[in-house]
Amino acid sequence: MQNKKDIPNVPLSKFLRHSLNILKNPLPFHQNNFIERGNTFSLTIGLNKKIYFSRDAQFAEYVLQKNQRNYTKSKIQTEDLSKYIGKGLLTSEGEHWRKQRKLIQPAFHKKQLNLLLDNINDTIKTEYQKVQPNTKVDIFPILNDLAFQTVVKSLFSNAVNQKDIHRLQHITEATQKMLVKELRQPYLVWWFTASGSLKKHLDLTEEARQILKRIVNERRVSGLRQNDLLDMLLDAKYDDGEPMSEEQLIDEILILFVAGHETTSNALTFTFQLLAQHPKWQDKIVEEISSIEKETKDTMALVTSAKVCQQVIEESMRLYPPVYFIDRVNIAEDSFNGMHFKAGSSLLFSIFEIHRHLELWEQPDAFLPERFSEGGRKFSSQYFPFGAGPRKCIGNNFAMFEMIIAVSQLVSKYKIIPEFETIDITPLITLKPKNAFLRFEPRS
């Protein structure tokens, strides 16, 4: 058995020397370490404290799927993130997670999502009215609003005012920025506490919870049914026939806001930038949508038949996965391919690197949607845009349907012209776009 010390190590001195660059963008630092040290290395980040980084797809599959019972999410999600969004599906573990997953899963079945699609379609159409034709525009803020509005309308239909929506969006984004500072500057945690910055953001979280409680209470009092996600969550019952507590319901709603809007707006932005660089794929989508709409106007038929559009989105999420790292901690000691990990080891899998690995993908840095002509399942052992195993994102179908509608609508209406030199990124909690300037020429 190979001892863990045989795993190449990046010393603390190098970590500290590059700390400012890591704060801005950690990906080049990690990429350099992968090139120098191989597919798995350890990084010393403090006295007797190491994190193991890996771009080994087989190792990721082993941890996330094959031996997932021996792995739990790290403190980053179960404690650091949960203090802002509570103990819901994304941040919970063990029996509590299993109980919540079983309870909420039916709300995301295709049959239930079909009830939401027309509302999603109308919401996206409304948001696209913000697009100014023949004008250079940063598309990300528009898509960020679009994704947030889509989550809000899917949750609450029209039972929430724009003031509350904007406040919830502000709080969601502000608390995530604070969390990034905590994670990338752990040596300043004392200052975040002493300066009151941490308390300020925790107070914002409490404000968001109070807004959501009021919205939920108004729905309960009204007795009206909207067939939205809130109704589905209120209807959900545990095995003993009891519904979720109010606090648990708010936790799940907060997580839907965080997980449901930011990743989608990021993925859509990168998709439109890639389409701007490769206009032939715009034409293919327009041709496909036109053909489908000659046969049916049904929204579910559109999202399940738009295979070219789906290929484009899948390739975009390969190149720019919104969730670009996945973390796990092993409960009991474990070994994989000669590497040994004592219990409690912190593992970080770079989905960004796995999705661009030379040994896994032909022309890994090229935009080739045709590689997904047989669907994403062909690459299930090396393609993880929504995670893998039991913890795979519960909203993956919701997100794909929303993105197919969003891409289909915009590309059918406009030719997308690039107004940028390169696709720039800002890696925060998720992989965010930067300077995504585009121009939209109306199609005749």
Describe this structure in words.
By secondary structure, this protein is an alpha+beta fold. The chain has a single domain, classed as Cytochrome p450 (Orthogonal Bundle), CATH 1.10.630. The chain is built from 18 helices and 13 strands. Strands 1-2-3-9-6-4 form a 6-stranded mixed β-sheet, sandwiched between helices. The longest helix is centred in the middle third of the chain and has 32 residues. It is globular, with a radius of gyration of 22 Å.
| Overall form | globular
Helical percent range? 40-55%
The CATH topology label is: Cytochrome p450
What's the domain count?
A: 1
Tell me the radius of gyration. 22 Å
- The number of helical elements comes to 18
CATH homologous superfamily heading: Cytochrome P450
Largest sheet geometry: 6 strands, mixed
The total count of strands amounts to 13
Low-confidence residue ranges = none
Structural class comes to alpha+beta
Lateral arrangement of strands in the main beta sheet = 1-2-3-9-6-4
CATH first level: which class? Mainly Alpha
Give a nutshell description of this structure.
By secondary structure, the chain is an alpha+beta fold.
